[in-house]
Amino acid sequence: MTRKNESRSKFFTLLLLSSSLLFCGKAAFAADPAAAPKGPAPIQFIRYEDDLSWYADPKNRELFIDKLKYIPISDSGYISFGGDLRTQYENYTPPNFGMRNLGRNEWLATRALFHVDIKSGFGPRAYIEFGREEIAGKKGPFTPNDESNLDLQQGFIDLPVAVGGGTVTARIGRQEFFLGSGLFQSLAEGANIRNAFDAAHVLFKYGNVEGRAFYGHPLRQSTYAFEDAPNLDLDHYGLYTTVKSVLPGLNVDGYFFGYDRKGNRFNQGTADEERRTVGTRLWGRSGPWDYSGDFAYQFGSFGSGTISAWGSMLSGGYSFSGTPMAPRLSVTAIAASGDRDPAKRTLNTFNPMFSLSPLLSESNSFVPMNLISVYPKVTVRPLDGLSISAGVNAMWRQSKGDGVYTVPTVLVARGSASSSSYVGATAEFAALWNVNHFVTVNAAYTHFKAGDALKEAGGKNFDYTRAGLLLHF
Fold it and tell me: What residue range is the signal peptide (predicted)?
C-alpha cells in the first residue's frame, strides 16, 4: 500500500472520528423530550429501505441535517440525502490459517458511501449511491472487494404499478439486496466493498404474500474511478417468495436460484458450473422463542459431469426479556454436503453463492461448503443499544473426500491432505453499540484452534481482532 493511500485512509479516519462528535452532540440535542417526543426509525443496512416517514412532519426538520433527510417536492414526494462512513481495524495473527508465512497482517479499511433518494408523489423512484473504499497497511493477499476508487455502488429506478389489492414494482439498475436468512444472498458486510449487482427485478406484494424474480450479474470491481462493470462470466437469477402468518408464529419462504459461472474451482477440479437451487425456509417467533430453518437441494452440471448437493441451516433462540440484561440463548447448526469422490463425475459440494458474511465466525474465515457446524451463543444487553455476545463454533468436514473452503468460496485445503474430518473450533466474542441514531461502534475477537483437517494441510491456529466505527445519517 502506498503512502498516499495510507494518508487518505488516515484522513478518512480522522474525519469519521471528528464527525462522530458532531452527531453525538446533535443526538443529545434531539433527545430533549420537549423538543422531540420520538425519533426517526432506525437506519437500515440497505439504505433504500430506510423509513423516512418521521421526517415528513416539518416540525421534525428543524436542524440542517434533518432538512437533508426530507426535501418535499410534492404532496407525498421528496428528495432525501444520506451517507455512511465506516472505518475498521482488522488483525489476523497469522492470516490465511498460517499458510502464507505471514506472521501478522493488520490493516485499516475505510468505506465511504453517499446516496440520494428521489421519490415522486405518483409512484416512480430513483436511488443513486456512490462509494469509495480504501485499505491501508494490508500485506496481502488482496481481494477484489478490498479497494475501489469513486464509483457507482447503486443506481436504480423503481416503477410501481397497483394490481388489484397489491403492487408490482419493476426495479432496473445497480442494486444491493438481501434474501431470507442470508444463506444464499447477502450484502457481504464483512468485506470492505459490499455485494452489488447489475440486475432487473420484479417485486410483488399482495396481502401476506410477497417476493421477487430477478436476473443479473455481480460487479467486477476495478480500482479505477467509474470502471466497475458487470461480471458477464457469472449469471445469477431466481425467484424468492414469502408467505407470512401461514399459521400463528409460522412464515414460509420458497425459492429457486440459478447460478452459472465460468471456470469455478472445487476440490474436484476447475470447470464451468451451472447450478440450480430449490429450497424452503420456515421461520417465525412464538413468545420468547424464535427460529429459522433453511433446507435446500442443488442440481445442474459441472464441466461434463453433474451436480447433486444439499445444505441446511437451522437457528433458534430463547430470549429472557423480563430479566436483567435480557439474555438470549441461541444455537445455529449448519450441514452442507461435500464431494464424496473427486474421481467421479458427480460434484456433491454445496455452493452457498453469495452467503452471509460473517456467518460462521466473526473472522469471516469459514463458508458453509463441505461442512458440519454447531454454534451455541449467549447474548446480553447491559445497556440500551449495546449487545455483547460470546459463543463457540465447532466444525467438521461433511465428507473426507472433499476439502476445506474459506470465504467467499475458495478452496484452502485439499481433501487428500488429511484423513481427519475435524476442521477446528472458534471462541467468538463480539460487541455492537448503537451509541445513538448516527453512531455505531463494533468490536470482535476470534480465537481459532485448528483441527487435523487443517493442521495436516499446513494450517495453524489464528487470532482475529476487529474494532470499527460507523457514522451514518
Answer: 1-30
* Preceding amide of 141 cis, omega within 30: yes
CA nearest 397: which of 417, 427, 376, 377? 417
Q: What is the pLDDT of residues 348-369, one digit of tens each?
A: 999 999 998 889 999 999 999 9
Domain borders along the chain are: 3-472
Provide the strand spans (E) within 164-288: 166-175, 197-206, 209-220, 229-230, 234-247, 250-266, 269-286
Full-model pTM:
0.89
Any idea which residue has 445444505 for its cell? Answer: 311
Q: Which residues sit opposite 207 in a β-bridge?
A: none
Read off the pLDDT of residues 225-269 as tens digits, 9 standing for 90 and up: 898 999 999 999 999 999 999 999 999 999 999 999 999 999 999
pLDDT at residue 225, as a whole number: 86
CA 467 – CA 472 distance, rounded (Å): 17
- Give CA–CA dist 376/215, Å, rounded: 36
Task: Tell me how crowded residue 89 is: count the other CB atoms within 10 A of its CB.
Answer: 16
Residue with cell 429472557: 320
Contact 314, 295 (CB under 8 A): no
Average pLDDT over residues 29-33: 38
Using CB atoms within 10 Å of the CB of residue 298, give its burial: 0 to 12 exposed, 13 to 18 middle, 19+ buried. Answer: buried
Distance CA 373, CA 18 (A): 41
Chain length of the chain: 473
Q: Which residue from 426, 367, 375 is spatially nearest to 190, judged by alpha carbons?
A: 367
Residues 130-173: pLDDT tens digits?
999 999 999 877 888 899 999 999 999 999 999 988 999 999 99
* Residue in the structure block whose three cell numbers are 410483488: 204
Burial 108-119 (b: 16+ CB within 10 A, else e): bbbbbbbbbbbb
Q: Is the peptide bond before 95 cis (omega within 30 degrees of 0)?
A: no
CB contact at 8 A, 291 and 315: yes
Nearest CA-CA partner of 434 in 22, 21, 19, 24: 24
pLDDT in tens, 449-470: 999 999 999 999 999 999 999 9
Q: Give Cα 72 distance to the centre of its chain.
A: 32
The C-alpha cell 423480563 sits at 322
Instruction: Specify the CATH class of 3-472 in words.
Output: mainly beta
